[in-house]
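During the no-cost extension, the postdoctoral fellow (Dr. R.K.) reprocessed legacy sequence entries with the updated structure-token encoder. One reprocessed record is reproduced below for audit purposes.
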Amino acid sequence: MSVDTVAGASADLRGIVHDAARRARVASRALAPLNTTVKNRALHAAADSVLAHTHQ
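Re-encoded structure tokens follow.
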């Protein structure tokens, strides 16, 4: 693996992580005013989605 390839992969990963963090901040703001029951349902739905897509 060349240095350029590693640098490119690192930049790609950085962008992916940055995007995930941005989306998490947006989601946290949307969930903040909701009551605990609604938040828990949303978190369980998100977890179910992650698990469903993990085993594909």
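Residues 3-54 form one domain. The first helix runs from residue 3 to 31. The remaining legacy entries will be reprocessed before the final report is submitted.
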